[in-house]
Each structure stands twice: as C-alpha cells, then as structure tokens.
Amino acid sequence: MGAGRSASSVDMSGSDLLAQTQLPAGARILHEQSTVIGSGNNWVGRVVIDSARDAAAAYSYFLDNYPTQGWTLLSAVRAKTSVMVFTKQEHNVTIEIQEGSVIGGGSAIVVLTRAPRNANDVSPAAIKALKFVNALIKFSAKTDSTGKMAEWSNAPDSKCV
Questions:
Q1: How far apart are alpha carbons 24 and 62 in whole angstroms?
Q2: How many CB atoms sit inside 10 A of residue 98's CB?
C-alpha cells in the first residue's frame, strides 16, 4: 500500500459483499473512499479498489473476466486513466483504472461505479435509500406521481419529497 492509502484487511476477491461484481485476486476495497448502498446483487454506489496489480493487468482482468460473468462490454477507452462500461441485467458498471504511482508501489487504483440501467425507474425502496443518502451528502431527489425520478438537486437545504 502506498502513502495516503489504507485498505480493508478483508480480501474481496470472492466478492461476498458485491455479489456478481467480482474483483481481481488480492484486490482490496478502500472503504474510506467508497460509498455503497445495499448489498448482494442490489447494491449501487462507488467502490474504490487497490487492484494489487499494474494498470495494464487490471484493465486486462476486467476486459477478460467480466464478459465471462455475464457482463456485456458497452464501451472501452484505454488511456492513462482507462474507462470501461459494462451492462448486466438492470445495472451498468463503469470501471475507471488509474495508473499507480511509483511511490504507491505501482498498483493501479480502480473506481467501480454501479448504478441502475434506467435511473428514471426508481423503486420505493431506492427512494428511501436516496432519502437516507440525502441526509449524508445533501443531495435531493424528487419523484413525479408515478414514482419516477423527476429531478436532482445539490442545494444544501433541499429536501426529498
């Protein structure tokens, strides 16, 4: 681990917490930098991972392994910060892979963001979770009469309805 990074002592390669979103062997979730709502196959959020490998190997892992887990690659850009977008069932996953620094041991940082494929179709349980998150991050979500997402606001004093 490099300076400024701390990691969980739990090896998440089996991915119990993230269900169908498996991580490379030896990868560590950086909990302090991650936000996850839900668990199993119903989680959404952002997970920051120390990949325990260089950027090229991390990119190859996701590109090779996610399709075998049922994920369909929608887009991929290979660069200093590489980005891949996958879809599976009702979720999209965006994977950003940032080259590691020499000081940090060269291990790439992976930011995995998972969200519903159709963010306008929000269940009552998701609205409840959003209200909870609203209190934490001061964002609000408003729904129309059918329960679909009508608008987002980042005003500090906004309230969910």
A1: 8
A2: 16
Three-state secondary-structure class, residue 36: strand
Q: Are residues 17 and 68 in the same domain?
A: yes
CA angle, 92 then 5 then 75, to 5°: 25
**pLDDT tens for residues 14-29?**
344 565 567 888 899 9
Q: Could you tell me if 20 and 69 are in contact, meaning their C-beta atoms sit under 8 angstroms apart? A: yes
pLDDT (tens digit per residue) in 133-143:
555 554 444 55
- From the list 6, 89, 78, 9, the residue with the least C-alpha distance to 48 is 6
Domain that holds residue 143: 119-161
The parts of the chain modelled with pLDDT lower than 50 are 1-16, 138-141, 152-161
User: Structural domain tally of the chain?
Assistant: 2
The Cα–Cα gap between 13 and 79 comes to 25
> CB within 8 A of 114, min separation 6: which ones?
21, 43, 44, 45, 47, 91, 92, 93
C-alpha span between 99 and 53 (Å, rounded): 10
Answer yes or no: is 145 within a domain: yes
